[in-house]
Amino acid sequence: xxxxxxxxxxxxxxxxxxxxxxVPPRPxxxxxxxxxxxxxxxxxxxxxxxxxxxxxxxxxxxAVLRAAGLPGPTTVQDLAVTERPPDTHxxxxxxxxxxxxxxxxxxxxxxxxxxxPLSWTVPLxxxxxxxxxxxLLPDALLRAEARRRRTAFRHALSAYxxxxxxxxxxxxxxxxSLTDAVNIGHGRSFRRLRHxxxxxxxxxxxxxxxxxxxxxxxxIRELSELAASLFLAGTEGAKVRASLAAKADALRRSAAAEAxxxxxxxxxxxxxxxxxxxxxxxxxxxxPALAQLTRSL
Length: 297
What we know:
Blueprint: H1 2-22, H2 29-34, H3 53-58, H4 62-67, H5 73-82, H6 86-113, H7 121-169, H8 174-184, H9 188-202, H10 207-218, H11 221-236, H12 241-296
């Protein structure tokens, strides 16, 4: 009985820790309002992410994963979007894989100590399954976070193009419009744009070249197209105001269509609990009658 109690307590604690890691608690309202007036910081030195227990546990295995060719090109692009160090991501993969590998063995040992031993195939199969799941889980979370960051960047890019269009209409040059517009905005996306333009100014390269490199790094097609339009305007004198207005309008329409699609998908998912409740109610009502009928036959 003592072993079963300890097993249940350990399993509950592990599930709670996994849930907190997957769905972190929401910050208080005071912390969210404090972000509206952040302290001044250099755009070239973003805050570094602090690692948790998974990073500390998996850090010794990052060299092995590096030697195996990880992370892949797609993962490297997603890491660039989320601004996460590759070693942190590899450490989390190793830590979760190790945890998944050892957890079923620990459960089997506790059951054996409590007098309820399992067949050796059950812990072995569970260890392999949990290890693979733990190894792939950070990649899935990273892809989802990178998708959200790219969507947010497209929204910020639409606002940025509107600001550039207004400054161009006021008679400002292309380079001056790009610099002045990016200094107006705030947030992560504008910080990346500001960083790219600052790098272009310090290295004496054209701003559209820096924006093109940023679009390739983040895999944002709209930013690469913007860089191509600015290149034509800056080198061949092409009219860019109408092109920027059209691109901003296209980004807004795309964002609206994507938001509408997400809302429709969420509405469809909301119908699933109602269907399950209706099915459970029908089963609850008709099961006694069906059981009585089968017994009478």
